[in-house]
Amino acid sequence: MIEDKNRPEWKAQKTFAQNRIDSKAKAALPPPTPEEEARPFAKYYHEEIKQYDPAHYKLMENPIDPASLSAEHLEEVEAFLAAIDANDDVQNVFVGLAG
């Protein structure tokens, strides 16, 4: 099945770069005023976002070769993936860990 990239749900998807820009902008917003907090849906519009960590983004830009992981780290990654796969909301997990 070929996905139609012109559908609204595809157009609404952000690129990694756009998500990064939006996260920086949202993290820099001032906290809501007491009047804003009193509004019924304020908790949804003023979701707290931590300042981004440039070192974290730097790590995400370069994929990690699974062969370079220590046995301890590989075990941690596999446990994390197993937990994701065990979640009822997850249908498929595709991971390339063969190194």
Q: How would you describe the overall organization of this protein?
A:
With 99 residues, this protein is an all-alpha fold. It has two domains: 1-62, no CATH class; 64-99, no CATH class. It has six helices and no strands. The longest helix has 16 residues, at 71-86.
Give the topology string: H per helix, E per strand. Answer: HHHHHH
User: What is the overall number of helices?
Assistant: 6
Percent helix = 40-55%
Structural class: mainly alpha
Number of domains: 2
**Average predicted confidence as pLDDT:** 78
Task: Please give a handful of descriptors for the protein shown.
extended, 2 domains, 99 residues, 6 helices
Brief sketch in words of this structure:
The protein is mainly α.
What is the topology?
Layout: H1 8-11, H2 16-27, H3 34-37, H4 42-45, H5 54-61, H6 71-86
